[in-house]
């Protein structure tokens, strides 16, 4: 059995940032494990700009953003093993690995950082009637085909789901010469960033069909068309609203799911809303010595926030390896009335840094409403927000100096006034 002080699972933006922060905090024996053949994760196929505005104060493409972290990891001498699949993780922090070069092996780690990222929800989760013809792709798969393999999946495109990847691929397919018929969204609002709706759909005249879904896929060998229908408040198709749209390709952008099979196997408690681990202010999970960050923790809208949280997780893992002080009493962070979840879900006041950023998403679009924070039932923050949308993450900074000594509960919610 091999061993290391810190094992980082995943060499995407989260894993790289966490490993770099841990090394800068004094951890020498670090091993980053990546199943792909190149570090950088999903950023390698995100050739559009818009990354790095918070981290580097300049606009970068995905590969450019990843390259800066790879260069820093190389500068610090952090080893990254590529082509390695982690098959299992135990609560004792023993990892089971497999690779072409070494076969099956086990690794014992003093601490583990979970940075596996997320995956797309496939067609099988949607229960769309019809055969299984060629021409149905997740938006991320189509992105990889176009941007990395130089292949165009189709010419006449319908996109189901208005997540950010779907919106970006609407523009990308248009630029490559395909015709995007429309983007259909089950909900009455888009799940993507407002800037992506404007830059990827509005600027190219691509229709966004809200409260619509695909109810049938035509074609046996290859997609020949889809049937769209309006949906009611119960999200069920409204009879008589069906519309046939000829197309040869259907792209699915219907949600992202944190990759947490390894977390579950290790006994890590998962949040039913995010699908990721329940963590404290130091990004520690319910299993001692196991930390989580990035899209394996909760799906982010900006990679800059991924890097910030991952760096904090790396520093926390370093403190754990050095035998840091016990956390002390834990205060739950709860949500209600329009706030879907928070990350972290609890904090230990005695061990927390001077400031902790709590990130969360709202459950529906809100205009001219107030974001509120309560501690022990007393409102300590009441800020008006012009717009809040599920596709854009909100955040609030808790300051240790402002927390009362008898703090028992922190609650975030949306209020009318």
Summarize the structure.
This protein is α/β, with parallel strands linked by helices and 417 residues long. The protein is built from seven helices and 27 strands.
Overall CATH architecture of the largest domain: 3-Layer(bba) Sandwich
Tally of strands: 27
Identify the CATH class of the largest domain. Alpha Beta
Low-confidence stretches: none
- Cα end-to-end separation: 60 Å
Shape, please? globular
CATH topology of the largest domain: FAD/NAD(P)-binding domain
Going by helix content, strand content and strand pairing, the class is alpha/beta
Supply Rg: 22 Å
How would you characterize this protein structure?
The protein has 3 domains: 1-120 and 255-324, FAD/NAD(P)-binding domain, CATH 3.50.50.60; 122-254, 3-Layer(bba) Sandwich (FAD/NAD(P)-binding domain), CATH 3.50.50; 327-417, no CATH class. The mean pLDDT is 93. Strands 1, 2, 5, 6, 7, 8 and 19 form a 7-stranded mixed sheet that branches. The protein has helices at residues 13-24, 62-75, 139-147, 164-175, 194-201, 261-265, 303-321, and strands spanning 2-9, 30-33, 49-51, 60-61, 80-81, 84-89, 94-99, 103-114, 118-120, 136-138, 156-160, 179-185, 208-210, 212-218, 225-230, 243-246, 249-252, 256-258, 290-292, 330-335, 339-343, 346-348, 355-362, 366-375, 378-388, 394-399, 410-415. The protein has 7 helices and 27 strands. The longest helix has 19 residues, at 303-321. The protein is of the alpha/beta class and 417 residues long.
């Amino acid at each position: 059995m091999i061993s290391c002080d810190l094992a980082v699972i995943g060499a995407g933006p989260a894993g790289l940032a966490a490993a770099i922060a841990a090394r800068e905090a004094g951890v020498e024996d670090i091993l980053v494990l990546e199943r792909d053949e190149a570090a950088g994760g999903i950023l390698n196929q995100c050739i559009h700009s818009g990354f790095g505005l918070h981290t580097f104060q300049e606009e970068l493409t995905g590969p450019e953003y990843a390259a800066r972290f790879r260069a820093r990891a190389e500068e610090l001498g952090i080893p990254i093993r590529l082509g390695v699949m982690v098959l299992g993780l135990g609560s004792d922090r023993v990892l089971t690995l497999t690779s072409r070069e070494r076969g099956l092996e086990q690794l014992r780690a003093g601490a583990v950082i979970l940075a596996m990222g997320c995956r797309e929800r496939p067609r099988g989760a949607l229960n769309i009637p019809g055969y299984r013809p060629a021409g149905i792709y997740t938006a991320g798969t189509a992105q990889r085909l176009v941007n990395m393999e130089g292949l165009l999946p189709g010419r006449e495109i319908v996109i189901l789901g208005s997540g950010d990847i779907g919106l970006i691929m609407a523009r990308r397919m248009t630029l490559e010469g395909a015709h995007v018929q429309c983007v259909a969204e089950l909900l009455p609002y888009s799940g993507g960033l407002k800037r992506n709706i404007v830059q990827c759909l509005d600027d190219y005249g691509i229709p966004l069909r809200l409260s619509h879904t695909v109810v049938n896929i035509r074609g046996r060998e290859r997609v020949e068309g889809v049937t769209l229908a309006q949906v009611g408040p119960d999200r069920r198709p409204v009879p008589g609203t069906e519309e046939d749209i000829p197309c040869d390709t259907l792209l699915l952008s219907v949600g992202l799911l944190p990759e947490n099979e390894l977390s579950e196997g290790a006994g890590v408690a998962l949040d039913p809303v995010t699908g990721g681990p329940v963590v404290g202010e130091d990004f520690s999970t319910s299993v001692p010595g196991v930390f989580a960050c990035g899209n394996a923790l909760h799906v982010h809208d900006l990679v800059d926030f991924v890097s910030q949280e991952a760096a904090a997780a790396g520093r926390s893992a370093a403190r754990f390896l050095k035998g840091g002080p016990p956390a002390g009493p834990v205060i739950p962070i709860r949500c209600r009335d329009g706030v879907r979840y928070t990350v972290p879900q609890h904090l230990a006041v005695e061990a927390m840094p001077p400031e902790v950023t709590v990130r969360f998403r709202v459950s529906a679009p809100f205009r001219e409403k107030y974001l509120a924070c309560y501690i022990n039932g007393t409102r300590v923050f009441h800020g008006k927000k012009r717009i809040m949308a599920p596709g854009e993450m909100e955040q609030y900074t808790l300051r240790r100096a402002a927390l009362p000594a008898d703090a028992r509960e922190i609650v975030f919610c949306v209020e009318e006034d």
